[in-house]
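=== RUN LOG ===
request id: a7f3
mode: sequence -> structure
chains: 1
length: 59
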Amino acid sequence: MENFFPQLKELFNLTILLINKLAILFEKLGWGFWKIFSGIFVVILQFTIDLVKLILSYL
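=== RESULT ===
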């Protein structure tokens, strides 16, 4: 289980990076709503990371 969590965290970090890069791309295309959506998505993803970390700490 100890080796799994750093890989999971890295996956979440790469997902956040991808969402941020897409937000920049879509903002340049004129899709401003994507920046709002990506911000909400990143907050939800960070909450999920914290929740998984909390659950794994009890195992």
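=== NOTES ===
Residues 10 and 52 are 13 Å apart (CA to CA).
The radius of gyration is 14 Å.
=== END ===
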